[in-house]
Input
Amino acid sequence: MSTAVRTSPPGDPRELVDVRDPFHGEQLPRWAPFAALGAAVAVAAALHWLVGLGPVLSLVTGWLLFVVGLTGLSRSVEGGRRAIDRLAATLITSAFAIALVPLLTLLWKVLSSGLPVLSGQFLTFSMRNVVGEGGGIYHAIIGTLLVTGVAALMSIPIGLFTAVYLVEYGHGNNLARVITLLVDVMTGIPSIVAGLFAYALFVLFFGEGVRLGFGGSVALSVLMIPLVVRASEEMFKLVPNELREASYALGISRWRTIVKVVMPTALAGIVTGITLAIARVIGETAPLLIICGATDSVNFNVASGRMMTLPVFIYNSFKQPGVPPEFGYARAWGAALVLTIIIMALNLIARLVSYYFSPKTGR
Output
């Protein structure tokens, strides 16, 4: 329980002391940072109205006054070390707040522009024979789910088995080193390169101008495989070797040890990594624009014909909004909101899986 005492003459800054722990010495009360922030905001507002400073310059001025004031007050009361600690904490918190600005601005823009568009018709109708007002994104939602789902079906087994080989069988041999290098290179390739690769591959079989939903799945799998490999590899490395050695001591073979011991232990992290990898590739536009193409109709067959996806729908709606253009722009914002909700749902699922299925420590 904290108690406040006066340890200096009246009027001295050191009178603002909150003694919580005899081992930590004199400390500022908890309300001191908020008081310094309020004073800085008041001074910045006064300068804004009296001198005519712009909003950005007033914000920067208020922030500088807060940092300097709080650091000086802390130095006069708590000493130099605590003042440096408060300065570092203030800078870190400020950097975090600055990082939130574009994120919150983007979310606000997507919500404010996309929510008025959402309706039952918007989610259950396609754009077939629709000009101007009306229509929906049902065909794009189906295309996104099918293309991404097929990509996941291809990428998850390949990435998972590759990670098993690198951790359980490779042990630093030449092939494992080459695979690790290729995974690192694939992690950094631009998405449009994956689309060009898929297009070039299917041109060999179907000729120039091919547009195919399955081609989009191949392009997304090129981007997804290294993410699955890296996430699964790190989770396998976190499994204690003592568990493997205990299994081997009981006479259990290596493959059964991997299936019955290693994989269940790392399951939560693997599922989380796979879910985040899906969320990462589901919003790709360039590769799908190249190989999947665009259509206004619903296509349930990824192996035949063009297939619309949400990212491509958003791009086309802004590039060719139609006449009048405001309806096309509105549909684009609505599709952007739906795609954002899908990605946020995938991230939430990943967090829940990690929380509920991670190995519990303690008793």
